[in-house]
Specification:
Elements (H helix, E strand, L loop, with lengths): L1 H8 L10 H15 L6 E2 L2 E2 L6 H13 L3 H25 L8 H10 L1 H6 L6 H14 L3 H14 L8 H11 L11 H21 L3 H15 L11 H9 L4 H13 L4 H18 L13 H9 L6 H29 L11 H18 L3 H18 L4 H4 L3 H10 L6 E4 L5 H6 L4 E3 L10 H7 L6 H8 L1 E6 L1 H10 L2 E9 L2 E8 L2
Parallel strand pairs: 3-4, 3-5
Antiparallel strand pairs: 1-2, 5-7, 6-7
Helix pairs in contact: 1-4, 1-18, 2-3, 3-4, 4-5, 4-7, 5-15, 5-18, 7-8, 8-10, 9-14, 13-15, 13-16, 14-15, 16-17, 17-18
């Protein structure tokens, strides 16, 4: 109940964050507006980076709750809740001999920092995680393999890294052929194919060159190269695991030691393989993000829950929580001052919501010292939710373009065009509920026709004609470059506001 309220209650707090959330939300909005649910479009350009399950879910939420953060994130919160229900079931069915209460694993998993933060953000990863947990909860039935189809439909073949690969490793480790039954009967793979493949077959058949793009750029390119500029050191996911499982880091280390001692038991080997094998595999990838570890955090929660005995976890968790409170009280004000652009770091104190979150962290600290992990988890989860609402006031500084889009709506006449310069921010078309024009913005347009590109792309020498027709053309991009373009085209540039490293303004005829 507490975890569910925390997930659902904060779904519409801060605005959608650039660039992942705004990108997914804008694709979903365009699907809803156009009625084309087959081919994802981002600002009018075909966008095949991910299969459409997350877009369909977000689009359904937007249809029910409106074009806003609530509509976009409610399906994510529901996916997280489904995942937690699956955690309880898989612990009871698959890992019962490890002698840990399913409810405790749910508390630990649901309150882990990475799950509590990234698990409620709009992207493909929460839906992949829900599919992975469905598999572990239902295996070895055919429906477990069908869940792999959902995962493939959410994020592609990486679903096998979090499911089939750990099972194979655990079976080889223990020379246990019986464990291979978790890979499921053939009819399960038929269900998997019926769920996973039709969309791929349809879009590949109608889009020449798409199969090579998906296999070469989106699968091989992400794993074997750094073309997507998301590299990291070999120990990247070890650091993500230790930081993301907070406040249960010490409990995880204790649980790993205990589970390793029990490695002669098949369930212990399977739990270790489920946690370690995907993270090791992903460590060799040229593309790394913290969200990639999210499907492994139920295994981390299971093992951490086994470490909740003795004094080590109590003092370790209490010290970690107390350190967080001290850091928030001493460094939080200056950090907010820098975010808000205030010259004097001491000019801003923590907002009341942040102070309330600190008080809840204090309660979590006391619960840890008293050996009450469920109460500690509840207080920590509520603290994260309260902190999320406290962050609404600063969501613009934290990365949401909602307020800059609102400012544009308030000052812009309906017919005046909007042009993004140099960098594409998907939040503007999402909050404006319309396509924007792009000038000097790199986009993957290899699957678009020339007329479709012409409706979106804009040349600098077209600005004077737009100004003559509409009076003003609104721009969003690096101010230096926008001013330079305006000067080259004989136009006058006026800045209205800045957001992070970009400026909102307009160009008009020179006096």
């Amino acid at each position: 109940m507490v975890l569910g309220a925390a997930l659902l209650g904060t779904a519409g707090g801060p605005g959608l964050f650039e660039s992942t959330e705004t990108r997914y939300a804008e694709i979903a909005r365009e699907m809803l507006a156009s009625g084309d649910w087959l081919v994802p479009h981002l600002n009018g350009i075909q966008h095949f980076h991910k299969p459409p399950l997350a877009y369909w879910a977000a689009g359904s939420g937007l249809a029910l709750f409106g074009i806003n953060a609530w509509g976009a994130r409610i399906p994510v919160a529901l996916a997280a809740l489904i995942g937690l229900v699956c955690v309880a079931r898989l612990v009871a069915r698959r890992f019962a001999t490890l002698e840990v209460a399913p409810s405790r694993v749910v508390w630990v998993t649901g309150s882990a920092l990475l799950f509590a933060v990234i698990g409620r953000a709009l992207s493909a990863d929460p839906f992949l995680t829900a599919a992975v947990l469905l598999y572990w909860a239902l295996a070895p039935s055919p429906w477990a393999i069908a869940a792999l189809g959902l995962g493939f439909f959410a994020k592609g073949p990486v679903v096998l890294v979090h499911t089939v690969l750990p099972v194979l490793v655990a079976a080889a480790w223990g020379r246990d052929r019986k464990m291979l039954a978790m890979i499921g009967p053939p009819r399960g793979w038929l269900l998997c194919a019926l769920i996973a493949l039709p969309w791929y077959l349809l879009v590949v058949a109608r889009t020449p060159g798409l199969l090579e793009y998906l296999l070469g750029n989106q699968v091989w390119g992400r794993f074997a190269t750094t073309v997507h500029e998301r590299g990291g050191p070999p120990w990247y996911f070890a650091a993500v695991l230790l930081a993301g499982i907070a406040p249960w880091t010490v409990a995880l280390l204790q649980g790993l030691r205990r589970t390793w001692r029990d490695r002669s038991r098949p369930e212990a080997r399977l739990a270790l393989a489920w946690l370690v094998v995907p993270l090791v595999f992903l460590s060799f990838s040229g593309s790394k993000l913290p969200a990639y570890a999210l499907p492994s955090f139920a295994a981390a929660g299971l093992i951490a829950a086994r470490g909740l005995d003795g004094r080590a976890w109590r003092w370790g968790t209490a010290l970690l929580l107390a350190g967080s409170i001290v850091a928030a009280l001493t460094l939080g004000g200056p950090a907010l001052a820098r975010l808000a652009g205030v010259a004097q770091p001491d000019a801003i104190g923590l907002p009341s919501g942040a102070l309330a979150a600190c008080a809840l962290l204090g309660l979590a600290t006391l619960a840890a010292l008293r050996g009450r992990p469920d109460a500690c988890a509840a207080a920590f989860a509520i603290a994260i939710a309260v902190l999320g609402w406290a962050a609404v006031r600063y969501d613009s500084q934290l990365g949401s373009p909602r307020r800059i889009a609102q400012m544009l709506r308030e000052h812009r006449a309906p017919s005046e065009p909007v042009v993004e310069v140099g960098h594409f921010n998907a939040g503007l078309p999402f909050y404006l509920r319309e396509r924007v024009r792009l000038l000097e913005v790199p986009r993957e347009v290899g699957f678009e026709t020339a007329p479709a590109r012409a409706r979106v792309e804009l040349a600098a020498d077209s600005l004077p004609a737009l100004v003559t027709r509409h009076g003003r053309v609104w721009t969003f991009g690096r101010e230096v470059r926008v001013e330079e373009i305006a000067r080259e085209q004989g136009l006058r540039y006026v800045r209205l506001a800045t957001w992070r490293r970009e400026a909102l303004g307009f160009v008009t005829a020179a006096p």
